[in-house]
Amino acid sequence: MTENSRIRSTGPAKTQVRPRTEGWTQKTDESGRPLLQFASPKRGKPPVHLADLTPAERAEKVKELGLPGFRAKQLSTHYFTHYTSDPAHMTDLPAAQRDELVAGMLPPLLTEVRRLETDKGDTIKFLWRLHDGALVESVLMRYPGRITLCVSSQAGCGMNCPFCATGQAGLTRNMSTAEIIEQIVRANRLIANGELGGKKADDHSMERVSNIVFMGMGEPLANYKRVMDAVRIMVAPQPDGLGMSARGITVSTVGLVPAIRKLADENIPVTFALSLHAPDDHLRDELIPVNSRWKVDEALDAAREYYEKTGRRVSIEYALIKDMNDHAWRADLLAEKLNQRGRGWVHVNPIPLNPTPGSVWTSSEKDVTDEFVRRLNDAGIPTTLRDTRGKEIDGACGQLVATTEDEAAAAAVNAAQPR
Ligand code: SAH
What we know:
Blueprint: H1 3-9, H2 55-64, H3 71-81, H4 95-105, E1 111-118, E2 123-129, E3 135-143, E4 146-150, E5 154-156, H5 165-169, E6 171-174, H6 177-192, E7 211-214, H7 224-235, E8 249-253, H8 257-264, E9 271-275, H9 281-287, H10 296-310, E10 314-320, H11 328-340, E11 346-352, H12 366-378, H13 399-416
Helix pairs in contact: 6-7, 8-10, 11-12
Bound molecules: S-adenosyl-L-homocysteine (SAH).
S-adenosyl-L-homocysteine binds at residues 159, 163-164, 214-215, 219, 252-254, 275, 317, 319, 351, 353-354, 356, 396-397.
């Protein structure tokens, strides 16, 4: 059966809604293709920070500041193992030059604007302001035996996915390597201060972030170099980096095929996740506009190659949206396309849609969700429903920024009104 005949054969049994029929209009470029922003708009660069530099470059920069190169190692130890940028804590550095050295090497990058907590304090969402006023988010989550941080890689996003709050806001700019790393260091500092709740008395796991997911704002593979430099710093042994395990780092993408191939050749075994959300081009063209460049089959082939080159099992992400992509035939088609490419190389992570404010779409009903998961599992594809941690604190990508920008806009309007 072809994809089109399947679409027709769904008949009246289950409704089909699509972004376009639900009032969403696809933005297009001059040539009429779906609008995608791959290049970061030019803006003032964030200050250069120790975490933007290689160990050799760090020593070089410290020498430029008039101190011997070995001071760079001491600064790295403060930053990557004690999670501090506060000169007052650095008593092993010469008091006279300490402030200048810290100002030159560890400039402030993220100002905390807001912190929201839920799940009895074991989920914390941060809203950060960057040096130029751009806003980004990260979400910290404690699970039994691991602590996961969801990080942003861009301020905004150029991929324009209709169901995603960040996608609708457009791309402000790429984040620097150090801005990405600083999200982790700030989270580690908070954990070290005992501010992340939910720890059980018998949990002796190390008290710092163990897992990173690039599922905050932005398309990580559209900011490839800075994201990969950040990954290299995450896995570099302390004190040069954070000493994390590559396996605990998940890079999630809409499916930039050439970049997926490049990632597979990096020899850093990160976990790879593909945001598929539809197994047929017909729907995916609208749901994930980058599908106009690389089709479902091309993205799946690249994902399979990732597995072949790295031996790492790939994740397929699938936000279940009521009557849009949750049809039983789509579960079957997805299973078929994955099984066509071999066994044991992939698992599927459906997640109920977290509706963005004002969204006309909602998450799938429970019985539909269960049926979708069951069909995939029955076809031999390991499938686990992902939890929706932090839903009540606008856990979905970009929602906190959207709310804050709305509030700022409302405040500006109020301020402008005569009293
Ligand atoms: N740009 C990357 C990573 C950021 S988004 C990517 O698309 O993979 C991380 C995941 O959250 C993606 O799978 C994305 O499709 C999903 N997502 C975005 N908005 C969502 C929403 N409202 N509800 C559920 N998942 C959402």
